[in-house]
Every structure is written in structure tokens, then in C-alpha cells.
Amino acid sequence: MFEFLRKIFIREKKAKETKSEPKDFLILREGEIEQYVRAIVEREEDKILKEAQDFFFSLNEKLSDLEKSLTNLEQENISLPDKQAEKVVSSKKQEFLNKMRMGIEKVRNIDASNLEKFFRTYEEALRSLREANATSLKEFIAIKNYYSSSKDFLEKFKDFFEVFFSFKEKIKSEKSVEIQELKKCLSDFMWIKSEISSKKKEKEEISRKIVEKKKEVEEKKNELLSLENSEEMNKLVELQKEKMKISYKEKELASICVERVSKIDYILK
Questions:
Q1: Which residues of 191-209 are buried (b: 16+ CB within 10 A; e: fewer)?
Q2: pLDDT band at 7 (very low <50, low <70, confident <90, very high)
Q3: pLDDT at residue 23, rounded to an integer
Q4: Dihedrals φ, ψ of 18, to 5°?
Q5: If you average pLDDT over residues 149-173, what whole number do you get?
Q6: Residue 56 has pLDDT above 70, yes or no
Q7: Which of 186, 195, 151 is nearest to 37 (CA)?
Q8: Per-residue model confidence (pLDDT) at position 25
Q9: How many whole angstroms from its chain centre is CA 117?
């Protein structure tokens, strides 16, 4: 990720040829990296969107001419001796018109306000035009011998479709791929930055808990030390000493009793 960004940085630096630029991409601070990459992405996206807007502006005349031919075809009526055949041909014509209208409407609805919306709506329009181009042939074969406007419309549609399709190569150029890669790098960078921030907070929380535990242990030690030096503790020590003396006396008395009992037993014998 950083190697790719560094290559972009070097290229941008050479293009600008200014002494105010940093010497190396890696010495940029986090905020500067984010700002720097976003600026490149926005600039390149604006270029593509401007090119797209110019392209669709240039298509207005072709699109209007195509819609005019479509209207002429729609308004043209036929009258066949076989009314059943006339009904079938009219139905096929309507299917053909509906599919073409759908494709043209998708082209009209292309949104060039930002690159994501543009790519999505352009692809939708392209799919619709492809479908109209492919699936309408069957219906067109059924109607072309009955409507004089059909050939004129199809020629204009093919011309429009080829021009519209050719623009796909421009918007899917190496520059567009680079923008997507830059966006991915920026997304990865922001994720890493977020993870580092999260781990830093975890570390700070653990450090805080350690300090609290140390403080708690210190308080317990002070309480114990205070207890050891208290008057109650001194009394307890004295009582323990008295208890030991009593235990010693008990042992002495028990020993004397055993000795006396032994003497009594000896006398009685």
C-alpha cells in the first residue's frame, strides 16, 4: 500500500517541480497523508467527470435525432390485407419501441455528480442499450419491411450505440484503475489508523487499570502496616505471650501429675 502511494507521490512531485514539497512521502504525517491522497483522488475524479459531461453534451444532438426517428417510427401506421398479420407486426413494433425507449431513458438518467454514481448509471445504460440492440433484432426483422422509418432509426441507433460504447474504454482507462487503487489504499490506511487508535485506547485503559490496582495494593499494604503498629495489635501480641506461658504451665503441671501418680502406684504395690 505505502509503496504504491510513494510512487504516486514521486510522480506528483516531479510534475509540480516545487521546492515546497516534502522530500519523501513517508515523512508526511498521518493527517497529511490522508489529505494528500484525497486531493489527488478528487482532482483525477473531477477530470474524468468533466470528460464525461463533455462527452454526453456532445451526444445531445445524436440522442435528440435518435428520439426524433423513434417518434417518426412510432407515428407511422400500416394497413395490411391480413388483419391478423397487421396485429402481429404492430405488436412487434411496440415491443421494439419499448426496448429502445428504455435504453434511451437510461442514457438520459446517467448521473455524473460523482464518480461512483456515474460508473453505476453508465453501466446500467450500457446494459440496457446492449439488451435493446440484441433482443430487438427479432422484432425489427418482423417490422422492417412494413415501416419506411425503421431502417433510418436502426442506422442512427447503431451509430449512437457504437459512440456510447467506445466511451467505456476511456472511463475504464489506467487512470480510472489508479483512482480505484488510491481509494483502496486510502481506505486501508484509514482502517489501519483506526485499528492503531483503537489499540492505543485499549493500551491506555489497561495502563489505567494497572495504576488503579497498584494504588489498591498500596492502600492494602498501608492498612496492614497501620494494623501492625496499632494498640490492638500490641494487646494481641501480649495475649499470645500469656497464652504461651499458660500452655507451658499446663505442661509442667501435667508432668508433675504423672510423676505423683507413678509414686502412688509404687507405694500401693
A1: eeeeeeeeeeeeeeeeeee
A2: low
A3: 44
A4: -120, 145
A5: 80
A6: yes
A7: 186
A8: 45
A9: 16
Which tens digit of pLDDT belongs to each residue from 207-257? Answer: 888 888 888 888 887 777 776 666 777 777 777 888 888 888 888 887 887
Q: Please write down the HEC assignment for all residues of the chain.
A: CHHHHHHHHHHHHHHHCCCCCCCCHHHCCHHHHHHHHHHHHHHHHHHHHHHHHHHHHHHHHHHHHHHHHHHHHHHCCCCCCCHHHHHHHHHHHHHHHHHHHHHHHHHHCCCCCCHHHHHHHHHHHHHHHHHHHHHHHHHHHHHCCCCCHHHHHHHHHHHHHHHHHHHHHHHCCHHHHHHHHHHHHHHHHHHHHHHHHHHHHHHHHHHHHHHHHHHHHHHHHHHHHHHHCCHHHHHHHHHHHHHHHHHHHHHHHHHHHHHHHHHHHHHHC
- Lowest-confidence range among 24-38, 122-136, 167-181, 255-269? 24-38
Query: What pLDDT sits at residue 205?
Result: 87
The CA distance from 53 to 100, in Å, is: 23
The answer, as to whether pTM is greater than 0.90, is: no
Contact 181, 4 (CB under 8 A): yes
Cα distances from 218 to residues 9, 186, 210, 213, 230, in angstroms, run 54, 47, 12, 8, 18
Q: What angle do CA 120, 121, 123 make, to 5 degrees?
A: 70
